């Protein structure tokens, strides 16, 4: 019988590294994650994201979250795609790890982005999930470079990047919240610089996903 994962291979993708699992998210997973977002993923006075999407009021925030993920599915193509994977730790859904790219078949690069529910932060999960996504993209999707970025007042994200092996790659002055400028540290990671996690990756669903992004033919 045909499943939704057969038709949209991202939803059948799984990357496991010890107690950590990254996998495609079904709608019921999005509902759980929307609850995590509304419970808080950063202090109210802080804004770690370039687009301040967490500023929306409760209810609206959850709806916006669902619509964003539905939109990335609807707009998925070989020219432009977002690989958002749910993050499970010891079987508990704790956040999202993403990889966003354009013209991947030419550039073989993209940008990582992620978040964790606030109560799951400070346990090393953020580092492990970044190590897992970077190793997966390098080893299984033929990437040659991965980028990221974090505002200079977000030391936790910058610390994760250092632990994983990213190098500094310049600064950008960006509008963050209304009327506010913030300095964004750009980062770049090469395969030889990646600091891998202690657990070897176990993957499922890779051949179909590679075909869905234009690798290995249609």
Annotation keywords:
9 strands; Aminopeptidase; 218 residues; single chain; globular; 9-stranded mixed β-sheet; alpha+beta
Detailed description of the structure:
The chain is of the alpha+beta class. It has a single domain (4-212), classed as Gcn5-related N-acetyltransferase (GNAT) (Aminopeptidase), CATH 3.40.630. It is built from 7 helices and 9 strands. Strands 7-8-6-5-4-3-2-1-9 form a 9-stranded mixed sheet, sandwiched between helices. A hairpin with a 5-residue loop joins strand 7 (167-175) and strand 8. Helix 2 (27-39) packs across helix 3 (60-74). The longest helix has 16 residues, at 125-140. The protein is globular and about 50 Å long. The mean pLDDT is 91.
Shape: globular
Please tally the β strands and state the result. Answer: 9
Q: What is the average per-residue confidence, as pLDDT, rounded to a whole number?
A: 91
Secondary-structure element order, as H and E?
Answer: HEEHHEEHEHEHEEEH
CATH architectural name: 3-Layer(aba) Sandwich
Tell me the count of domains. Answer: 1
Please mark out the parts with pLDDT under 50 across 5 or more consecutive residues, or reply none.
none
Structural class, by secondary structure, is alpha+beta
Please count the helical segments: 7
Residue share in helix: 25-40%
CATH class: Alpha Beta
Largest sheet, if any? Answer: 9 strands, mixed
CATH homology superfamily:
Gcn5-related N-acetyltransferase (GNAT)
CATH fold topology? Aminopeptidase
Alpha-carbon distance between the termini? Answer: 21 Å
Radius of gyration: 17 Å
Please give the order of strands in the largest beta sheet. Answer: 7-8-6-5-4-3-2-1-9
Beta strand %: 25-35%
